[in-house]
Specification:
There is one protein chain. The protein is built from four helices and 43 strands. The chain is mostly beta strands. The chain has a 22-stranded mixed sheet, with no helix packed on it. Strands 1-4-6-8-10-12-14-16-18-20 form a ten-stranded mixed sheet. It is globular and about 90 Å long. Mean pLDDT is about 95; it is low at about 1-25.
Length: about 600
């Protein structure tokens, strides 16, 4: 009983002490305060740094600063609000108990990263992202043995990375040096960072080969070496990174074959190898990538056939193999990749016929097979069963007329150019009210533009060039919200409406390219064209135009290309400051004045 009473008394004393005599906050260490005030002095103080007042306690009153409760030393600095400019103080190297330093995001610090930061042996987290730091990464960083996360991305850092930096960073699990100007090889010591889960080195100027020892990073989840100058083969040992989720090696100069060991990366969701110099065939082992969502192999020199094993990839959503040398047919088994959203096999040597099994791709919204010798063939009717939004079958050997089902499709972007399609533009085209891009150029269409065309209220880019369309152009100009129009090399007639420059469809977004050349328009150039203030390209060659050139045309400040050659224009070319060659006016025997010979009075 006495023991219980004594215990209760002790608890009461502790409670009263905590209530009436609260724990005292440690005063700011003088060394730490000096370092922080020097940091403030070297910057244009932000909202946070304005709370750093010399006669107050940095541990209790300074925003973004926390101290160790045991020894009162500053252990964390986080600049989380407001823009900060200036330079980083070398005195921060005196904060020997610091474990967390973050000056990134809205900060715009310049100059070199102080080598004194290498004295922060207790530092675990260093964030200096999105500044304007320049110069090399300090070799003194090799002393940061406890570092777990290092983010120096989105700066102007340059030079090579000393091999010694990473030799003693065994605790580092996130490293981001992306978007700098770093050069030289990726240091071989990177292989010692066996705790790494994230390695971002993209958008630098690294050269040389991918280190073979990178395969030792068994915990790596994300590897991004894209947009550098890396050369040589993809190491076969890459397949040992069994935990890898994303592998980005795109936009380099890698060569050789894709190693079949990539098929061992069974956790991979994203594989980007585009824009390299890779050759050989697509490994059949790709069929083992059961979690893969995206495969990009664009702009390489890959040959051979599409492997049928790709049908095993139930999670695959995007395929982009454009600009290679693939041959053969698209395997019917592609129809089993049910989650496909986007397929781009354009600019290869694939042949037809297209397998009707592709109609089973119920999720497909984008299909690009352009510039493959698939035909001669008509536009497959099975496409009507898909929920396609973007369809590109340019230069595929299409023949016949446009199918009726197009009018009830959900297509918003349609490219059927450079084929042998013929007949009239059907009136049902007007039902495609969501269509914003239409290119049926270089075909054999022959008709007027149906009045239903006015229902294409979403159209922004229209290319009808090199057909045999005829009739007036007004129905085209009075709809949509155009950025570009090309109706050249047809049989359209005029004259052009004198108010065409005021048409709503040409002004909502501001048309930038208007190409009307090689049509028997007749009439004159409307002065109202000067109201199309966003025009960069205006081509009206061989249009049988008469009269003078309106001075308003030369008031178009954004105009880069003008061509009114081979017409029947006359009079003096209005004075202008634009740099327009004489060839833009040739073939108009009544024109004179700069840049043509002067007028004879």
């Amino acid at each position: 009983m006495r023991t219980i009473k004594n215990s209760l008394a002790l608890i009461s004393i502790i409670f009263l002490s905590a209530t009436f005599f609260p724990i005292l906050v440690q005063p700011c260490n003088p060394i730490d305060k000096e370092a922080l005030l020097d940091f403030k002095h070297r910057t244009k103080p932000s909202k946070i740094l304005k709370t750093w007042i010399a006669n107050t306690n940095c541990c209790s009153s300074w925003a973004g600063v926390t101290c160790n409760q045991t020894n009162g030393r500053v252990d964390s600095i986080q600049h989380y609000e407001g823009t900060l400019s200036g330079t980083l103080s070398p005195f921060l190297g005196n904060l020997t108990y610091l474990t967390y330093l973050s000056v990134s995001g809205t900060t715009k610090l310049t100059g070199p990263i102080p080598i004194e930061l290498g004295k922060l042996s207790n530092l675990k987290h260093l964030f200096l992202s999105t500044n304007q730091f320049s110069g090399p990464i300090p070799s003194s960083f090799g002393n940061l043995h406890n570092l777990e996360r290092l983010y120096l991305d989105s700066n102007n850092l340059s030079g090579t990375i000393p091999n010694s930096i990473f030799q003693s960073m065994s605790s580092l699990f996130e490293l981001d040096l992306s978007e700098n100007q770093l050069t030289g090889p990726i240091p071989r010591s990177i292989s010692t960072l066996t705790s790494l889960t994230k390695l971002n080195l993209y958008t630098n100027k690294f050269s040389g080969k991918i280190p073979v020892g990178i395969s030792k990073l068994k915990n790596l989840l994300n590897l991004d070496l894209s947009s550098n100058n890396l050369q040589g083969p993809i190491p076969d040992s890459i397949g040992e990174l069994s935990e890898l989720n994303t592998l980005y090696l795109n936009n380099n100069q890698l060569s050789g074959s894709i190693p079949s060991s990539v098929g061992q990366l069974i956790s991979l969701t994203d594989l980007l190898l585009d824009n390299n110099k890779l050759s050989g065939v697509i490994p059949s082992s790709f069929g083992n990538l059961s979690e893969i969502s995206r495969i990009y192999l664009d702009n390489n020199s890959i040959t051979g056939k599409l492997p049928s094993t790709l049908e095993n990839l139930g999670a695959l959503q995007e395929i982009s193999f454009t600009n290679n040398y693939l041959v053969g047919q698209i395997p019917p088994s592609f129809g089993n990749i049910r989650n496909l959203l986007s397929v781009d096999l354009s600019n290869n040597h694939l042949v037809g016929p297209l397998p009707p099994q592709l109609a089973k791709l119920n999720s497909l919204v984008s299909l690009n097979l352009a510039h493959n010798p698939l035909g001669p063939m008509s536009i497959p009717d099975w496409i009507s069963k898909l929920t396609i939004i973007t369809l590109n079958l340019a230069a595929t050997g299409l023949t016949g007329q446009l199918p009726n089902w197009l009018s009830s499709s959900m297509i918003t972007s349609l490219d059927l150019s450079s084929n042998k399609l013929n007949g009239a533009l059907p009136s049902g085209i007007g039902n495609m009210s969501q269509l914003w891009y239409l290119n049926i150029s270089n075909n054999q269409f022959h008709s007027t533009i149906p009045t239903e065309f006015k229902n294409l209220i979403s159209i922004q880019h229209l290319d009808l060039n090199s057909n045999k369309f005829s009739g007036p152009l007004g129905i085209i100009f009075t709809t949509g919200s155009y950025l570009s129009i090309d109706v050249s090399n047809n049989l359209f007639t005029g004259p052009l409406d004198k108010n065409m420059g005021n048409y709503k469809g040409l002004n909502i977004l501001g048309i930038s390219s208007l190409i009307l050349s090689n049509n028997p328009l007749g009439g004159s150039i409307p002065e109202s064209i000067g109201n199309l203030t966003q025009l960069k390209v205006l081509e009206m060659a061989s249009n049988r135009l008469r009269g003078s050139i309106p001075s308003s045309v030369f008031n178009l400040k954004n105009l880069k290309l003008l061509d009114v050659s081979r017409n029947e224009l006359s009079g003096k070319i209005p004075a202008h400051k634009a740099s327009i060659p004489a060839s833009a006016f040739l073939g108009n025997y009544g024109l004179c004045g700069a840049p043509l010979p002067p007028c004879k009075h």
